[in-house]
TrEMBL record:
Residues 130-183 form the HAMP domain. PANTHER family: SENSOR HISTIDINE KINASE TRCS (PTHR45436:SF5), SENSOR HISTIDINE KINASE YKOH (PTHR45436). It comes from Actinoalloteichus caeruleus DSM 43889. Residues 191-404 form the Histidine kinase domain. Gene3D superfamilies: 1.10.287.130, 6.10.340.10, Histidine kinase-like ATPase, C-terminal domain (3.30.565.10). This is histidine kinase. It catalyses: ATP + protein L-histidine = ADP + protein N-phospho-L-histidine. Its EC number is 2.7.13.3. The chain crosses the membrane at residues 21-40, 111-129. SUPFAM superfamilies: ATPase domain of HSP90 chaperone/DNA topoisomerase II/histidine kinase, HAMP domain-like, Homodimeric domain of signal transducing histidine kinase. It comes from the Bacteria.
Length: 410
């Protein structure tokens, strides 16, 4: 069902719309009051000014004198018959002029008063709307912080139990349920992964013992090698799940970490891997100080580097650099490789989703590397995004708040 478009101020804030409604209602009510007052005043003046004008005109044209004890009414050189008609005409004209002048003055003063009062009403309406919506702004700001950090915070709005208080309480209840659900999911993944590590280690030991047996033939050795490869992949998957469960939380005790130094250490460890894969690996480890968990941040950089090596081709390249950009630090990893469609980019950060079919070979990882990168970035109030390169490959860009910056991310 299509919703009807809003015709009045569709693209402005609620506060502006409320203020506009306040002002509109005030001006309509004020204009109606001015019109009613104008009509009533005109009606009253029609009678009052007629009597006043009649008295003034009679006094102007007639005067009473007392001669020999007799009161006589004399005209100022004007005969009685024409004076009656002229007197009536002058009374009507004087009444009309007085009424028009009074109504004009009243209307001007009323409009000026309406304009001044209207401006004051709009200003007061703006303040009142802001005060009324302040709790709602608090809920919105809290929801933004929760989306950026963790689900452990609550709005805990105080004040009268009105509609906004009910909204805040409902939001807190929803956060409580989500927090319990995500905590349960993390505990399940962590516990299941931890329990699976022991049998996988036992399997690896048994396979290695069987392969190393002197009586094992070539066929047994090949089968043992394949089983060891499968077992190693399962162990990498378990380790990745444990890291994902750990990284999907806010860092509680951040420490100073230089991403440039982390990149240098990771590059030293994986240089041989890149050489075996035929990938030219270059780094530019500029100073990039942040506050965070050193282990998680090193895992983040390691996953980005391994991702650029695994999803590449022989003769390709991988370039990783760090830099400080304003109040943020930036790590950019660009690599050659197969073509990635733009519509597949969001799925690359989902667990067990690697985009194109050629990126889903088992020897190229478990498919949670970039998921761990995103979780670690969020835990450090950062962002990570990927964009396809012309001719194949990806550019992954990570941004984190620089050390000393307590800003949230939008």
């Amino acid at each position: 069902m299509r919703s009807r478009p809003r015709l009045l101020l569709p693209d402005v804030s609620v506060r502006t719309r409320l203020t506009a409604w306040y002002g509109l209602v005030f001006f309509v009510s004020g204009a109606s009051l001015v019109a009613i007052n104008h009509a009533l005043t005109e009606r009253g003046l029609r009678t009052h000014l007629a009597d006043t004008a009649f008295s003034q005109v009679v006094h102007q044209h007639w005067r009473s004198t007392e001669v020999d004890g007799v009161v006589r009414s004399e005209s100022r050189g004007v005969s009685v018959e024409p004076v009656d008609d002229r007197l009536a005409s002058e009374i009507a004209e004087a009444t009309q002029r007085a009424r028009e002048a009074a109504l004009a003055d009243l209307l001007d003063q009323s409009l000026v008063a309406l304009a001044v009062a209207g401006v004051l009403a709009v200003a007061i309406g703006w303040l009142m709307a802001g005060r009324a919506l302040r709790p709602l702004s608090k809920v919105t700001a809290h929801a933004r912080r929760v989306a950026e950090r963790s689900l452990h915070e609550r709005v805990a709005l105080t004040g009268p139990r009105d509609e906004i208080r009910e909204l805040a309480d409902t939001f807190d209840d929803m956060l409580e349920r989500l927090d319990r659900a995500f905590d349960g999911q993390r505990r399940f993944v962590a516990n299941a992964s931890h329990e699976l590590r022991t049998p996988l280690a036992v399997n690896r030991a048994l396979i290695e013992y069987a392969v190393s047996d002197a009586d094992a033939d070539e066929r047994m050795s090949d089968l043992g090698g394949q089983l060891l490869e499968v077992n190693a992949r399962q162990e990498r998957l378990i380790e990745g799940l444990l890291m994902l469960a750990r990284s999907d939380r806010t860092v509680e005790d951040p420490r100073p970490v230089d991403l440039g130094e982390v990149l240098s250490r990771v590059a030293g460890r994986v240089e041989g891997t890149a050489e075996l894969a035929g990938v030219r690996f270059t780094v530019s480890p500029a100073a990039a100080p942040v506050l965070g968990d050193p282990v998680l941040l090193e895992q983040l950089v390691t996953n980005l580097v391994h991702n650029g090596i695994r999803h590449n081709h022989s003769g390709g390249w991988l370039d990783v650099r760090t830099a400080t950009v304003g109040a943020d630090v930036e790590l950019v990893a660009g690599n050659s490789g197969p073509v990635v469609r733009a519509e597949d980019l969001p799925r690359l950060f989902e667990p067990f989703r690697r985009g194109q079919p050629e990126r889903t070979d088992s020897h190229r990882g478990a498919g949670i590397g970039l998921s761990i990168v995103r979780s670690v970035a969020r835990a450090h109030r950062g962002t990570v995004d990927a964009s396809p390169r012309r001719g194949g490959g990806l550019t992954v860009r990570l941004r984190l708040p620089a050390a000393g910056e307590g800003r949230g991310r939008g």
